[in-house]
C-alpha cells in the first residue's frame, strides 16, 4: 500500500461524502478517457509511440534504449510527455492537429454519462480537467437535457465563478479549437498556467472538496496550486487503481501528506461512476425513449440554427444533410443502448436520403451483425467498400461477420486487407488472431494478440484471447495471468471470468472456478458456456442438483446445435446420477447428436470425473455412452 502517512478512505465513504455534502468538484485526467468506447490513448502510451517514431526516423540502426537515454539528456524530468511530443511534432500547428486527430470522433463512456448526471442533479458543482477531449461535454449534449458552462483556460476564464448556477467544465490547458493550446514543457510548467485558472484550482480546494480520478499528478502547473492552497474542511479524495504504485508521483504524495486528504483505491473511472449511479437513487442515465425524443429535439435545434444563420442560406442540400445526420445520430444512440432493430430503421431512413452515406452502411452492418443477420451485414460492408475501397474498419467488420458465419479463411483475407490499410489497427489483429486459432494456428494467433497488445497495452479482449491460446498450448498458469490482466482493464468482462474459471478448474481449483463462473453469469445471464462450465464443475464437486439447474439454464439460452447438445449432456449426467427418468431428454439428445455440428468441448474434466467417481456400473456405462456421442463431433 501507499506510504503509512497517507490516510485512506473507502469508495463507500467517498460516495457518502459527495451525496450528503454536494460540495465536491471533480478533477478528471486521461484515465477517464482511456476505456472503450472513447479509447483515447494515455500520455504514457503516446510517449512510447513518439519515442518509437522518432527512433525509426532518426537512428534505426542504434541500440534503442541507449539512443533514448542520450536523447533525454537535459530533459526536464517533470515533463517527459511535452519533451517527446515536441520532438515528434516540433511545431505548434502539428501538435494541435495531432490532438485533434486523437479526440475527434471519440464517444463518451458510460462513466462520462453518469458523471454528467451527477453534475446535472447538482451533486457535483463543476469538473476540472487537463484533458483535450470533450467527452464530458458530449455526454451532456447527447444524453441529458442541459449542457454545462464550458470554460477554457484563457478564452472565458475571467467570467468563471464557482457560485455560477450552471454546471461547469473547466479545461485547464485549453482546447485545440483555441490558439492557446498547452501541451509541452514551456506551455504547462507551473508558472505558465493562467492566473484565472490557478485561482480556480485554489478556490476549488479552499471552498469545496475535490475528488481526483484518472489523473496521475504529473503536471506541476496543476499540482503546485493544489499543494499550496489552504484545503477546505471537505478535503481531497484521490482515487487510484493501485495504491502500491501511488508513490511513483511525488507531487501527489506530497498533497496527500496533508491533513484531511484521502487515498481511495478503485477499479477504474467507469467502475467508480457505476457505483455512484447505483448508490445515489436520483442519479440515473436516461431511458432509450428519452434519448430518441432528444435526438429529434437536437435536429430541430440544428435546423433552427441554419434558418437563423445570417451568413449562409439553408438550401435543400443543407436540409438533407441535417435530416440524414439526425437519423444516423438517433440510430447510433439506439444501438448504443442495445435497441438494434430500431437503430436499423433509423439507418434505413438515413440511407434513403443519401444512398452514398458510407458511415451509415457501416453502422447498419454493425447493428445487423449484433442480431445475427450476418449475410445482410456483409452486404452493407460490401456497399461501404464500393464507396470507399480503403475503409479499413469496413474490412475488419466484414471479417468479423464472415468469421461468425464460419467462413474463417475469407475472414482472414479481410483482416489482412484491413491491416494493409491500417497497420496499427489493434482490433483487426485480435480478429485475425481468433481466426487463426480457429484454423489451428495457435502460435500464429498468439503473435497477432502480442501485436495488438504492443499497440494497445490495455486491450482486454487481446489479453483474454491470448490467455485462451496459452491454455490450449497447455500453459495454464500463463493463461491465468492473461485473464487476470483482462479483468484488470475490464472488470465487467464476463468471457474473461468464464475462461479464468476454466483455467482454475484445470489446475484443480474447482471452488474458485465456480466463483468465476458465477461472476460471469452475474454480468451476462445469457452466457451459455459459463452455465455449461459451471454445470461441469459442480458435477465434479458432486453438487448434482445445482449442476442440473445450471444445465437447464444453459439449454434455455443455447442458440446452436452444439450448445444445445452440450447443455443436454450436462442435464443428463446429474439426472442419471440422481436416478431420475431421462427418457425424454435422452431421446432429444440422441436426435441432436445425429445432426452435423462441431463441438470444441474439452472432455478431459468429464473423463477424469467419470473414472474417479463411485457410481454403479450401469449408470457409469450410460454416461460414458452419452459422452461418446458428443465426442464424435469433436474436431
Question: What does this entry look like structurally?
Answer:
It is a single chain. This protein is mostly helical. Among the domains are: 11-40 and 107-279, 3-Layer(aba) Sandwich (Rossmann fold), CATH 3.40.50; 43-103, no CATH class; 526-631. It has helices spanning 11-21, 43-58, 64-71, 80-88, 92-103, 110-120, 135-143, 185-188, 195-207, 220-228, 250-256, 269-279, 288-308, 316-336, 340-353, 358-370, 374-387, 392-404, 408-421, 426-438, 442-455, 460-472, 476-489, 494-506, 510-523, 528-541, 544-557, 561-577, 583-593, 604-612, 617-631, and strands at 24-28, 126-129, 149-152, 168-171, 209-213, 236-240, 261-265. A 7-stranded parallel beta sheet has the order 3-4-2-1-5-6-7. Strand 6 (236-240), helix 11 (250-256) and strand 7 (261-265) form a beta-alpha-beta unit. Helix 2 crosses helix 4 (80-88), helix 6 packs across helix 12 and helix 23 runs antiparallel to helix 24.
Estimated share of beta-strand residues = 5-15%
Read across the widest sheet, the strand sequence of neighbours is: 3-4-2-1-5-6-7
Total helices: the number is: 31
State mean pLDDT (0 to 100 scale). 84
Distance between the termini: 49 Å
CATH C-level label of the domain at 11-40 and 107-279: Alpha Beta
Structural class: mainly alpha
Give Rg in angstroms: 28 Å
What's the main sheet like? 7 strands, parallel
Overall geometry comes to: globular
Low-confidence stretches: 155-159, 174-183, 185-193, 301-315
Number of strands: 7
Name the helicity range. 55-70%
CATH superfamily name of the domain at 11-40 and 107-279? TPP-binding domain
Amino acid at each position: 500500500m501507499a506510504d503509512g502517512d497517507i490516510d485512506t478512505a473507502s469508495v463507500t465513504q467517498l460516495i457518502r461524502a459527495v451525496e450528503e455534502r454536494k460540495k465536491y468538484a471533480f478533477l478528471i485526467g486521461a484515465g477517464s478517457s482511456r476505456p472503450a468506447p472513447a479509447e483515447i490513448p494515455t500520455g504514457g502510451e503516446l510517449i512510447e509511440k513518439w519515442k518509437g517514431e522518432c527512433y525509426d526516423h532518426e537512428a534505426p540502426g542504434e541500440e534503442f534504449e541507449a539512443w533514448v537515454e542520450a536523447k533525454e539528456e537535459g530533459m526536464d524530468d517533470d515533463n517527459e510527455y511535452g519533451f517527446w511530443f515536441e520532438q515528434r511534432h516540433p511545431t505548434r500547428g502539428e501538435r494541435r492537429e495531432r490532438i485533434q486527430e486523437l479526440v475527434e470522433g471519440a464517444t463518451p463512456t458510460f462513466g462520462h454519462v453518469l458523471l454528467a448526471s451527477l453534475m446535472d442533479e447538482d451533486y457535483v458543482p463543476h469538473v476540472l480537467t487537463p484533458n483535450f477531449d470533450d467527452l464530458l461535454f458530449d455526454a451532456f449534449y447527447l444524453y441529458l437535457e442541459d449542457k454545462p458552462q464550458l470554460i477554457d483556460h484563457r478564452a472565458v476564464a475571467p467570467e468563471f465563478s464557482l457560485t455560477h448556477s450552471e454546471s461547469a467544465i473547466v479545461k485547464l490547458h485549453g482546447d485545440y479549437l483555441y490558439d492557446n493550446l498547452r501541451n509541452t514543457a514551456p506551455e504547462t510548467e507551473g508558472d505558465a498556467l493562467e492566473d484565472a485558472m490557478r485561482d480556480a484550482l485554489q478556490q476549488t480546494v479552499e471552498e469545496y472538496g475535490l475528488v481526483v480520478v484518472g489523473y496521475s499528478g504529473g503536471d506541476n502547473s496543476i499540482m503546485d496550486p493544489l499543494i499550496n492552497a489552504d484545503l477546505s474542511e471537505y478535503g481531497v479524495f484521490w482515487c487510484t487503481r493501485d495504491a502500491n504504485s501511488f508513490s511513483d508521483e511525488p507531487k501527489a504524495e506530497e498533497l496527500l501528506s496533508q491533513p484531511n486528504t484521502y487515498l481511495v483505491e478503485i477499479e477504474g473511472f467507469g467502475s467508480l461512476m457505476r457505483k455512484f449511479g447505483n448508490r445515489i437513487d436520483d442519479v440515473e442515465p436516461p431511458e432509450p425513449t428519452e434519448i430518441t425524443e432528444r435526438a429529434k429535439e437536437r435536429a430541430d435545434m440544428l435546423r433552427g440554427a441554419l434558418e437563423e444563420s445570417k451568413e449562409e442560406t439553408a438550401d435543400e442540400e443543407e436540409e438533407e444533410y441535417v435530416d440524414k445526420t439526425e437519423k444516423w445520430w438517433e440510430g447510433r444512440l439506439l444501438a448504443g443502448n442495445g435497441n438494434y432493430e430500431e437503430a436499423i430503421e433509423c439507418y434505413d431512413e438515413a440511407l434513403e436520403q443519401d444512398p452514398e452515406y458510407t458511415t451509415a452502411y457501416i453502422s447498419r452492418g454493425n447493428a445487423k451483425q449484433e442480431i445475427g443477420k450476418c449475410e445482410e451485414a456483409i452486404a452493407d460492408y460490401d456497399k461501404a467498400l464500393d464507396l470507399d475501397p480503403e475503409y479499413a474498419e469496413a474490412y475488419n467488420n466484414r471479417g468479423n461477420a464472415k468469421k461468425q458465419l464460419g467462413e474463417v479463411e475469407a475472414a482472414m483475407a479481410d483482416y489482412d486487407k484491413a491491416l494493409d490499410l491500417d497497420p496499427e489497427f489493434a482490433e483487426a489483429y485480435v480478429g485475425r488472431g481468433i481466426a487463426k486459432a480457429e484454423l489451428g494456428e495457435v502460435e500464429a494467433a498468439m503473435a497477432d494478440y502480442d501485436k495488438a497488445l504492443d499497440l494497445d497495452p490495455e486491450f482486454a479482449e487481446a489479453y483474454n484471447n491470448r490467455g485462451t491460446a496459452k491454455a490450449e498450448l497447455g500453459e495454464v498458469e500463463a493463461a491465468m495471468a492473461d485473464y487476470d490482466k483482462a479483468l484488470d482493464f475490464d472488470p465487467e468482462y464476463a468471457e474473461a471470468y468464464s475462461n479464468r474459471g476454466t483455467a482454475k478448474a484445470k489446475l484443480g481449483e474447482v471452488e474458485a472456478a465456480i466463483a468465476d463462473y458465477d461472476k460471469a453469469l452475474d454480468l451476462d445471464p445469457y452466457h451459455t458456456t459459463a452455465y455449461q462450465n459451471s454445470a461441469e464443475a459442480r458435477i465434479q464437486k458432486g453438487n448434482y442438483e445445482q449442476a442440473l439447474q445450471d444445465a437447464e439454464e444453459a439449454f434455455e439460452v443455447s442458440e446452436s446445435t452444439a450448445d444445445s447438445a452440450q447443455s443436454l449432456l450436462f442435464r443428463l449426467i446429474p439426472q442419471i446420477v440422481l436416478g431420475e427418468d431421462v427418457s425424454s431428454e435422452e431421446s432429444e439428445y440422441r436426435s441432436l447428436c445425429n445432426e452435423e455440428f462441431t463441438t470444441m468441448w474439452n472432455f478431459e474434466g468429464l473423463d477424469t470425473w467419470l473414472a474417479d467417481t463411485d457410481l454403479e456400473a450401469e449408470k457409469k456405462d450410460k454416461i460414458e455412452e452419452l459422452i461418446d456421442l458428443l465426442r464424435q463431433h469433436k474436431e
